[in-house]
Amino acid sequence: MCGIVGYIGRERSAQEVLMDGLRRLEYRGYDSAGVAIFDDHGLSVRRAVGKLVNLDGLLRDEPLEGRVGLGHTRWATHGRPSESNAHPHRAGSVAIVHNGIIENYREIRGELESAGREICSETDTELVAHLIDEELTHGADLLDAVRAATRRLVGSYALGVLSDRHPENIVVAKNGGSPIILGVGDGESFLASDIPAILPY
Ligand code: GLU
To answer: N or C: which end of the chain has fewer CB within 10 A?
Structure first.
C-alpha cells in the first residue's frame, strides 16, 4: 500500500499539487508513480517506473495544465513493477488510483474477460476501472457507478476515480485498512492517503 493524492479546484495547477503531495509521501517507498489530469485534451495520464524524478522528467517535457487530477505511488501487490501496471489505470472514460488489495480479483477478471473487456495490465486495480466504466456505459452517474462497482469488491481499498464524462467530479471510496483523508477548502478540495501530502494547504 502506498500513496494517493488528488486535487479539484480552480486556482492551483493540479500537476504541482499532485507532485508536491507525492514527494511528501516518498518516505513510504514505492516502485512506480503516475498522474491523471484533465487538460485541454481531456483526461491525460503519465506514468513512470522508479523514482518520482522519472515522472517529473516526463511532466517537464510534456506538462499537463489542468486543475483536476489524481496522483499515485505504487507498491505492487498484483503484477510486477512496470509502466503498464503503474497507476492511474484507464478503462473507457475512467481513470482510477488505488491503494490496497482486491481479494476476489480472479473472479472479477474472468467475468470481465468473458464480457469481452480487454484487460491491459496484471493489476487488481484495472478491474475496478472496468467495473465502473461498465456502470457508466449503462447510464449511471459517477457516484452511483462507483457505489455499484465497489459492492462487487472484497478486500481493502482506497480509491480515487475520474471520468471523462464527469470532469467536474472526483469520487473517493474506501474500505478496510486503506486510509484516505479529504481536505475541503474554499472552492477546492484535496484528497490523500496520508496527512503530510496536503498539510501545506
Ligand atoms: N493492488 C494494487 C496494485 O498492485 C495497488 C497497490 C498499492 O497499494 O500501491 O497495483
So the answer is: C
